[in-house]
């Protein structure tokens, strides 16, 4: 076709690529973010990401909030696994305040954190399935996320934005129903996870859609600041739980699964394997918790009345609890001066808290290291030259959570 | 041989002499300060040296200290040596009137957005950054919101007409005679939390 059918105005330059706005409210972005894709046919030439649509100025707000009021802010970072963020925040405070938690508290925390990791990976992996055309897995595993949320509900009363725990421990002891539900989860979930794996792992269509898509080398992944499952899929065995154990993770036996190619398929496999490892950890922790007898089995917080917000019932009935409650709420307890960096292994990687205290009641500066924010900048490198439909899978297999990106 | 803090300090002092200072390892992390002109040299040295190998940029952020004259803004790098599992914190200070700092994007691709975020909130101008523009806030914003001179909005303010979100809505609800002025006038006598 030598002749041009559409006459362009004099002096205009013919554009050979198409610009496509993917987002901000596109169902495939799974969050509020914009991708401006430059397409040549269906191939991606370049991308530009716009984020910040749900920026809520948490770091600014945190400068005017006492420690216990910052916990609900951390919920809303990665809202698929908010308990991990909550625990990470409590651990940061405890490090600053020099609070040591009893073993039972550590184990209970481990149970909650690993449940959160399972629910996070479960969503991510099943969404990868949905984006490649397999809806069944997503619907099937949803009831087990529901069961996890019911366990949270027994422990703290809420489900998604959990605000779970306190500085020093938990707000209340785990009740029998929580343990029963946990047992039920441990009994039923392995079969479901195996079935879920059968649906995907050797599925021809799924493999074709994910293998070699969005691959990244270990070197580039580290340079881009990848952490968590995305880094491990590229072959680097960095796991905060192993490298700098917190909450007594050193007492547990588990493997750190690594991939080789860093593509979507490896990320899927690593996340699946991590769910098995999380189950292993929960089983061990559950056993350890059951070994506590007598008064030891009643411990659910550290003995630090000056920082631990007492149980509401005690506040109404006991003088001492009332005094401490009043002191904490009215801000008569000052923090020590210092700066602390503490990180935990979140659903997406290293969730870090950099806290500077000038001795007042509120942090002088609090910075959240949000893994999503850091690795999303690699998106262009991951998708350049691939098809439009691959971009969608890369996005979901990176597990982009808008809340965590925008802070 | 495990990498110890003493060894890192010796290495740094051997290379940079008196320029690096303020060593401390409060709360288990070695912290030190260097002049801002040297930030890239120090980062490069930490990255390239065969023993130090700090090749993972964990975090980059800024802090505002309005009371420190000429050193109002700090840029804080958290670096991680993944092989030996050692973390360090490296700080530089800059004048708020001339907040120019060399970019670390040449060394760490991850610094790209982290520096944009730091610019967005503190106005630190990273020299040589490929795409230094706002990332989380709107482009039209003409100030840097995390600086300490900008307070958070007072949540108890009731002068804002914001009925949809419940603020001030209850007071004036259904009547047009209610004014907010009386309440605000009495508020003027309160200075902070002290009751006059």
Topology at a glance:
The complex is a heterodimer of chains A (407) and B (196).
Chain A: E1 18-22, E2 34-40, E3 43-50, H1 58-62, H2 67-75, H3 82-97, H4 103-131, H5 136-156, H6 176-200, H7 204-210, H8 218-223, H9 228-233, H10 240-243, H11 264-291, H12 312-317, H13 319-329, E4 337-345, E5 350-358, E6 365-369, H14 371-375, H15 379-383, H16 388-397, H17 402-406
Antiparallel strand pairs in A: 1-2, 2-3, 4-5, 5-6
Helix pairs in contact in A: 2-3, 3-4, 4-5, 4-11, 4-16, 5-6, 6-11
Chain B: H1 5-16, E1 21-24, E2 30-34, H2 39-48, E3 56-64, E4 73-81, E5 86-94, E6 100-102, H3 111-122, E7 125-127, H4 181-187
Parallel strand pairs in B: 2-5, 6-7
Antiparallel strand pairs in B: 1-2, 3-4, 4-5
Detailed description of the structure:
The complex is a heterodimer of chains A (407) and B (196). With 407 residues, chain A is mainly alpha-helical. In chain A, the strands form two sheets. A three-stranded antiparallel sheet of chain A has the order 1-2-3. In chain A, a hairpin with a 6-residue loop joins strand 5 and strand 6. In chain A, helix 2 packs antiparallel against helix 3 and helix 4 runs antiparallel to helix 16. About 9% of the residues of chain B have low confidence. The chains are: A mainly alpha (407), B alpha/beta (196).
